[in-house]
Design goal:
Strand content: 15-25%
Oligomer: single chain
Number of helices: 17
Low-confidence stretches: 16-42
Family: Belongs to the thiolase-like superfamily. Thiolase family.
Keywords: Acetylation, Acyltransferase, Endoplasmic reticulum, Fatty acid metabolism, Lipid metabolism, Membrane, Mitochondrion, Mitochondrion inner membrane, Mitochondrion outer membrane, Transferase, Transit peptide
Domain Thiolase N-terminal: 56-326
Subcellular location: Endoplasmic reticulum; Mitochondrion inner membrane; Mitochondrion outer membrane
Number of strands: 12
Helix content: 25-40%
Order of helices and strands: HHHEEHEHEHEHHHHEEHEHEHEHHHHEE
Largest sheet: 10 strands, mixed
Domain Thiolase C-terminal: 333-472
Mean pLDDT: 91
């Protein structure tokens, strides 16, 4: 807490004109769409292709509609959603199944019956049982890890075509017996005589039946992510009003993108026994006044993080087809984008749990030889409005850059007219392991739509980790 208090004091002192700057930032949020097409121009910059390294391309990306948990996907299992995403990808691309060399999927809350969900979903989608499939987990950047695993296998020449993706199913998460009950049941299973079984049963006490409920909390700190977001917002002086305005921006832009048909990665999914789902159901523009009536969700009564300015529990799956450029072109595909440089970062999970984008952004820019001004589209994961705004303020702080990032001056915050202009996780939803593929696919689509050349994708993750990647538009 001393560290966080120090961060609060120093940041408040060092941020340029704190109150005024906040007002200016809010204005930028609310006016971001008005100047989008005027600001983003088609540019002709250098390519990031490198001699001796194969070009890796995103051919296509799809996802099931992202639904609030407990709604239309309620009776399914994770592999059902993953299978639907894989089948949607096959349909969208007319991809011969035998062409795929490997399948990599991410997941966070693991269903024990399908622990390698990549394999189960692949078999269910009709892929050959000769195609290897494995599952990765890295919290909210699990499908980012799936994609970069695919990138590495292709760039190194081991594979030519890989399907990567992610799935999360929050409608039915594993609930365990207490440890005492688990030990007793395991011992009971090993008991050889009736007397041994009766003896073990006699040791069971009422408190053994208390279940262990899962929580979105850090194992190392035992703190929920919402608590961390609340403290981070306080440390950087992010007000409740700022958070609500940013959340409203996300929902408003997502609604507009949905109505204008920009969210083309969404596939229709016929839910067994129910209706066909065609769109995300968490996009709900409200008003700052209505949002302001909600009570704090984590730190009560004075916290600023609420249900309205946080991402909601979501069910959904995503899938992308990643190939070497030569393979894609040989098969007649027109790739959407090149996948270029990427980095992973990690920092203190207590006080800097959600600052991954602040650390990852300058590293990936430096690695690629680009500057913030070279980026035409930014797609950042929105875990909480307070998390995004805290990252923005950290990136605008010389003191933070010098003290924590090892830079002489501030990184600079992404301009809002280029930032998450089709909505984000706050409105579209956040099925933990599926979000990374959505970010990359959206970045590629935005570059195509807006005529830009480079996009920067970034996300935070539990454990104090983060990821960033440069996406380069494929020549049209």
């Amino acid at each position: 807490m001393k560290k966080m208090a120090s961060l609060l004091v120093h940041t408040a002192k060092k941020l340029p004109g704190n109150t005024c700057w906040t007002a200016v930032l809010c204005t930028r949020y609310l006016s971001s769409t008005a100047h989008l097409h005027a600001q983003v121009q088609t540019k002709s910059k250098k390519t990031l292709a490198r001699s001796g390294i194969r070009n890796v391309v995103l051919v296509e990306g799809v996802r099931t509609p992202f639904l609030m948990s407990g709604t239309d996907y309620n009776d399914l299992m994770p592999h059902d959603l993953a299978r639907a995403a894989l089948q949607g990808l096959l349909t969208r691309t007319s991809l011969p199944k035998h062409v795929v060399d490997h399948i990599v999927y991410g997941t966070v809350i693991q269903e024990v019956k399908t622990s390698n969900v990549a394999r189960e979903a692949a078999l269910g989608a009709g892929f050959s049982d000769k195609i290897p499939a494995h599952t990765v987990t890295m919290a909210c950047i699990s499908s980012n890890q799936a994609m970069t695993t695919a990138f590495g296998l292709i760039a190194s020449g081991h594979c030519d075509a890989i399907v990567a993706g992610g799935v999360e199913f929050m409608s039915d998460v594993p609930i365990r017996h207490s440890r005492k009950m688990r030990k007793t049941l395991l011992s009971l299973n090993k008991a050889k005589t009736l007397a041994q079984r009766l003896s073990l049963l006699g040791k069971i006490r009422p408190n053994f039946f208390a279940p262990e409920l899962p929580a979105v909390a850090e194992f190392s700190t035992n703190e929920t992510m919402g608590h961390s977001a609340d403290r981070l917002a306080a440390a950087f002086g992010v007000s409740r009003l700022e958070q609500d305005e940013f959340a409203l921006r996300s929902h408003t832009l997502a609604k507009k993108a949905q109505e204008q048909g920009f969210l083309t990665d969404v596939i229709s999914f016929k839910v067994p026994g129910r209706n066909t789902v065609t769109k995300d159901n968490g996009i709900r523009p409200s008003s700052v006044e209505q949002m302001g009536k909600l009570k704090p969700a984590f730190i009560k009564p004075h916290g600023t993080v609420t249900a309205a300015n946080s991402s909601f529990l979501t069910d959904g799956a995503s899938a992308v087809l990643i190939m070497s450029e030569e393979k894609a072109v040989a098969m007649g595909y027109k790739p959407k984008a090149y996948l270029r440089d990427f980095v992973y970062v990690s920092q203190d999970p207590k006080d800097q749990l959600l600052l991954g984008p602040t650390y990852a952004t300058p590293k990936v820019l430096e690695k690629s030889g680009l500057t913030l001004e070279d980026i035409d589209a930014f797609e950042f994961h929105e875990a909480f409005a307070g998390q995004i705004l805290a990252n923005m303020k950290a990136m605008e702080s010389d003191w933070f850059a010098q003290t924590y990032v090892g830079k002489k001056s501030k990184i600079g915050a992404p301009p809002m007219e280029k930032f998450n202009t089709w909505g984000g996780s706050l409105s579209l939803g956040h099925p933990f392991a599926a979000t990374g593929c959505r970010l990359v696919t959206t970045a590629a689509h935005r570059l195509q739509k807006e005529g830009g050349q480079y996009a920067l994708v970034a996300a935070c993750a539990a454990g104090g980790q983060g990821h960033a990647m440069i996406v380069e538009a494929y020549p049209q």
